[in-house]
Amino acid sequence: MKMPNNTVSSALAYFKDELKSFFDASEITQMMQITFQYYFGLSKMDLILNAEKQLSESELLKVIFTVKDLKNKKPLAYILGEWEFFGLKFRVNEHTLIPRPETEELVNLILKENTGNLTVLDIGTGSGCIPISLKQHNKNLTVFGCDVSEEALLIASNNAKSNNVAIELLKYDILKNKSNKFKEPLDVIVSNPPYIPAKEKQLMNDNVLNYEPHLALFVEDKSPILFYDAISDFALVNLKAGGKLYFEINENYGVEVKELMEQKGFKNVNIVKDINDKDRIVSCKL
């Protein structure tokens, strides 16, 4: 297709036509709306009402370059450098996973089940989307986030500042420190740890495999619940009596994680399904 002219309608047509052989129509529409909102402040309705609005050459180039990157399977979140999660904006890059709707369900469950002046730790915090969202929606929480990646912690720190949320971030390798005492007793521990066995790489889309951090995604085939084992040991040392532990899980390992928690002595171990009816969360109590 020829390059678009400078109207919004032409740029929209270019976006759709160039990507129609790469994505389905609904996905293209969603990405297009996010892109035009991000770059030009145009809502879904604005795209209709302002179809003949003129874009500058530099604005038009943003559309062209975004389309080019999308063709190369680069996730839109990384192209824009920002993604929405739980109503907040989060900076993301190749050192952080892109926040996903399933994790919003995890945050929502924690907020629903825990109120008051509690101390919470998120293990493997990445962009900081979990602890920042928890603190934003319950100011009474004292919230910590930890990660083994210094680059991820830097992004999380910037996200906390941009969302005007005060949380404490720490570099911490849970696999090496699973038996250590944390700086203070905890009421809630939450984690969305690496949980995809290496053998499943071949089933994954290129936009995930080629761009998102493997450190935050994959575990060895021989130990797919390695992190759940380590984090639950840490929880046994650091949770207060009656404290709660929440995990996001691989849908294929819900039963294994549940059995592991029960073996370690946790009570009220539940597997919670996500909006797509897949096993997605394990929650339990000490």
Q: Kindly report the name of the CATH homologous superfamily of the largest domain.
A: Vaccinia Virus protein VP39
Quaternary state, please? Answer: single chain
Q: In one word, what is the shape?
A: elongated
Main sheet characteristics: 7 strands, mixed
**CATH class categorisation of the largest domain:** Alpha Beta
- Number of beta strands: 11
SSE series: HHHHHEEHEHEHEEEHEHEHEE
Strands across the major sheet, in which order?
Answer: 5-4-3-6-9-11-10
Number of domains: 2
Task: Label the structural class.
Answer: alpha/beta
* Gyration radius over CA: 21 Å
Q: CATH topology of the largest domain, what is it called?
A: Rossmann fold
Which percent range fits the helix content? 40-55%
Low-confidence stretches: none
Question: What would the keywords be for this entry?
Answer:
alpha/beta; two-stranded antiparallel ribbon; Rossmann fold; seven-stranded mixed beta sheet; 286 residues; 2 domains; 11 helices; 20% strand
How does this model look, in words?
This protein has 286 residues and is α/β, with parallel strands linked by helices. It has 2 domains: 8-72; 95-285, Rossmann fold, CATH 3.40.50. It contains 11 helices and 11 strands. It has helices spanning 8-19, 25-40, 44-49, 57-71, 76-80, 101-113, 129-137, 150-162, 206-209, 226-238, 254-263, and strands at 82-85, 88-91, 119-123, 142-147, 168-171, 186-191, 196-197, 218-219, 239-248, 267-273, 279-285. The protein has a 7-stranded mixed sheet, sandwiched between helices. Strand 1 (82-85) and strand 2 form a beta hairpin. Helix 1 runs antiparallel to helix 2 (25-40), helix 2 packs antiparallel against helix 4 and helix 6 packs across helix 7 (129-137). It is elongated. The chain starts with 7 loop residues before the first helix and ends with a strand. The mean pLDDT is 95.
